[in-house]
Amino acid sequence: MDESTKILDNVTLAAYIVASVLFIVGLLWLRSPETARAGNRLSALGMLIAVVFTVVDRDIVSYEWIIVGLIVGALIGAIAARRVQLTAMPQMVAIFNGFGGAASALVAGAQILSQNDTGDVEPVVSVTVALSVLIGSLTLTGSLIAFGKLQGIVATQPVLIPIRHVITAVLVIGGLATAGILIYDPNLEWALIAMAIIALIIGVLIVIPIGGADMPVVIALLNSYSGLAAAATGFVIDNPMLIIAGSLVGASGLILTRIMTRAMNRSLGNVMFGGFGVADSTGGAAPGATAADRPVRSVNAAEATILLGFADSVIFVPGYGLAVAQAQHQVRDLADMLKERGAEVRYAIHPVAGRMPGHMNVLLAEADVPYDELKDLDEINDDFRRADVAVVVGANDVTNPAARTDRSSPIYGMPILNVDQARSAIVLKRSMASGFAGVENELFHMENTMMLFGDARASVENLLSEMKEL
Amino acid sequence: MSIEELLLALAVFVLAIFVGYLTITRVPPTLHTPLMSGSNAISGIVIVGAIIVAGSVGGLLGAILGVVAVALATINVVGGYLVTDRMLRMFHRSDEER
Fold first, then answer.
1. Contacts of residue A61 in chain B, CB cutoff 8 Å?
2. Engineering a disulfide at A421: which of A110, A222, A225, A385 sits with its beta carbon 3.0 to 4.6 angstroms away?
3. Which of A83, A118, A144 is the last residue of a domain?
4. Is-catalytic flag, A333?
5. What are phi and psi of A427, to 5 degrees?
6. A331-352 pLDDT, tens per residue?
7. By the CB < 8 Å criterion, does B7 face chain A?
8. What's the gap in Å between the CA of B14 and the closest CA on chain A?
9. Is A145 found in the same domain as A18?
């Protein structure tokens, strides 16, 4: 490469190597909560090094607007990070994914526009511009829709547009065609713009049919896309820092996506295109009617407290309902009280409980629950049969024993928490409405299950005051 | 980019994916949310590309796109690292006094 067109000098490259090592060590330190915080700081230090050495690079000619962009972005980011409720972390991560995708698409777009002004665009550049703009744009709108669903602005039920598969297929073909045209002749700016618009629409169409409980998969996948878009942009501007960091994030998101889909025993294709949970979108009328025909044992807080107060071993099973009711602090108070009475208390966390990977763990950490009391599915599932009481707080499908036995159930084969094997179960729930999958939960009708109806937070508060009397 | 440079860039890409895979499979489920927000901050690395484009690309349109990209990527970086730190601060063991 000619010296004058060389994008990076050697000092900057060396700084990028240091930054890459810091990112990787930072991620390695995430393997334990004890080192995780330091790891995050190492990663941030890597980012600082990468940014500083890029800014002082000799090819940067105008600083004014860069500084404006940095200040505006830093202010918004810092305020958002301070203000966000931890129950709203899924939304925050969703919208940040979108911003990352958008930034990658903009950089790639700006680069090809400027190269067109100065001369030939190499095929590597036009191909990777197409990739970056396609992935980045659909990440933006997909993330905005996911944000809207999580925030309650967009309907959380799957929205199924008629012939949506046909529309999506036509748009995908259109996107690939415009990408082909752009690669053939990078000077055709209309092709770039058309491709971006098509990708923006595809992003909306693929996320809008996906229901709330499948959001952990969507967020993990969009996380991966934001990384891959950054990596593609790295090829566009021939910058190894973007390729390395983008690939790390791309791999991370893909691993999480796979963990989430495995925890639901579904394929990624089924999550994205299956229209799962549609039965629920009718308001749950049909499943509700059948549920009413079968008896459940409804109890009040006093009855539940008698059971809890004399238990030696209690397992809490939190779900999205815990986040909605913001009941994490009350649950922890209840756990403390049980421990004072000599009971062993643990928490069973299903991988897809909540709206993003690890959602429940963060909420319970906020309420000062020690992380060694949080057990994942494999760790705790055999212990349910030795537990006196399992307390289900706002979880549903992940406790349904039909997943083990009923071949006709839509959730058959999904790994579930063995709540039904505990000596007794207390289920805190608003009503008998079925869960996301639209199927009735066999657990609620079992002999040793007690239903404590009401808002999760109010119910736990009632349990607390009853427990004080005991 | 010559063929040699392209192959080198592809090698970097493939190796980084492998390193990411091996590193991230060791992250326990309890830290999956901080992992996502932290990797979100890392994907803000495109800030580097945005600075290069905003600072060197000629033309008003290129500059505007670049500055918007700088702002968006900075939100990711600053917001991502800060919120991850806020979350990780809360994790503690049962035998640790706070």
1. 55-56
2. A385
3. A83
4. no
5. -110, 115
6. 999 999 999 999 999 999 999 8
7. no
8. 8
9. no
Q: Which domain holds residue A222?
A: 84-276
Do strands A449-453 and A424-429 pair parallel, antiparallel, or not at all (unpaired)?
Answer: parallel
Same domain, A292 and A437: yes
Return the residue matching tokens 């349990």.
Answer: A463
Write the pLDDT tens digit of every residue in B31-81. Answer: 999 999 999 999 999 999 999 988 876 677 878 898 999 999 999 999 999
Domain shared by A104 and A247, yes or no: yes
Q: Full-prediction pTM beyond 0.95? A: no
Residues of chain B neighbouring A220 (CB-CB closer than 8 A): 36
When scoring B43, B56, B92 by the number of chain A Cβ atoms within 10 A, the one with the most, hence best to mutate, is B43
Calpha distance B47→A230 (Å, rounded): 9
Please give the ipTM for the structure prediction: 0.95
- What are A379's two structure tokens? 């760790």
CB pairs A-B closer than 8 Å: 390
Question: Domain ends where: A223, A245, A276?
Answer: A276
A70 and A138 share one domain: no
Q: Tell me whether residues A247 and B61 touch, CB distance under 8 A.
A: no
| A270 and A233, same domain (yes or no) | yes
Cα–Cα distance, A213 to A217 (Å, whole number): 9
| Whether A376 contacts A351, CB under 8 Å | yes
Q: How many structural domains is chain A composed of?
A: 3
> Which of A2, A4, A30 is the best residue to mutate to test the B interface, defined by the most B CB atoms within 10 Å of its own CB?
A30
Q: How far apart are CA A241 and CA A37, in angstroms?
A: 23
- Residues of B with CB below 8 A from A114's CB? 53, 57-59, 62
